[in-house]
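We emphasize that the prediction below concerns an isolated chain of 118 residues; any contacts that depend on oligomerization or on bound cofactors are therefore not represented. The input was used exactly as deposited, without trimming of termini.
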Amino acid sequence: MWLDGIKIEVKASRAVDSDSSEPLYIKALARNTHRPFLMNFQQLKPQCCDVFIWVAVFRDEIAIWVMSSNEVLNNPLFSKGQHRGNRGNEGQLHIKHDNIHVLNEYELKDNDLGQFIR
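Result of the prediction step, given as a token string:
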């Protein structure tokens, strides 16, 4: 996506119970859950965009986080080697129940996504 010359990549993931083998619609979790979960934002290529928008889907809420490419590259949760043979140009970020708080400062709190990106 583009906004005023800003290259944007959008990724989405859902929060599901890590301990469940039920279908996705059953193991989907609410935002305030205490159950273990994993959201994996994959195939992140910070060199190919200026900003990432991450959409986190919970049973009862959708959260949106906006981070610059540099913020992603320097995030301690960012793994630069997603696949074997990767030359460092594609990574991933695992968000779990015990580290989700590190994204608090990047969460969209109002409805003006365009301003938040800028």
